[in-house]
Amino acid sequence: MSWPWIIVLAVGAYGFKLLGVSAGSALRRWESLTRLLPVALFTGLIVVLTFDGGQTITFDARLAGIAAGGIVAWRRGPFAVVIAVAMLVTAGVRALSG
């Protein structure tokens, strides 16, 4: 890597740090909205996996995983745990059924 690129990257990194410090109060307003992002993602996952093309409702191992993940989310578990539980229950139901 040449010196001009190193200087450009160093100035860019410093600029991003300066932007973060100066925009701190403005970004705090978005903090409450970003807490809702996992809920929106999980809801989208439920809709996509439950409704097959908008015509039929699919009842299979995926529904069991979604239900288990929903219970963990309802109990205010971390988003990573919600996804892990949903995956494990889905895999377990598929292993037991076939």
- Outline the biggest β-sheet: 2 strands, antiparallel
Count of individual beta strands: 2
Poorly predicted tracts of residues: none
- Portion in helices: over 70%
Radius of gyration from the alpha-carbon trace, in angstroms:
21 Å
The fraction of residues in strands falls at: under 5%
Q: Can you give the mean pLDDT?
A: 82
Number of helices: 5
Task: Give a nutshell description of this structure.
Helix 4 (61-74) runs antiparallel to helix 5 (79-97). With 98 residues, the protein is mainly alpha-helical.
Overview of the structural elements:
- With 98 residues, this protein is mainly alpha-helical.
- It is 81% helix and 4% strand.
- The protein has 5 helices and 2 strands.
- The protein has helices at residues 3-22, 24-35, 37-50, 61-74, 79-97, and strands at 51-52, 56-57.
- It has a two-stranded antiparallel sheet.
- α3 (37-50) runs antiparallel to α4 and α4 (61-74) runs antiparallel to α5.
- The chain is elongated.
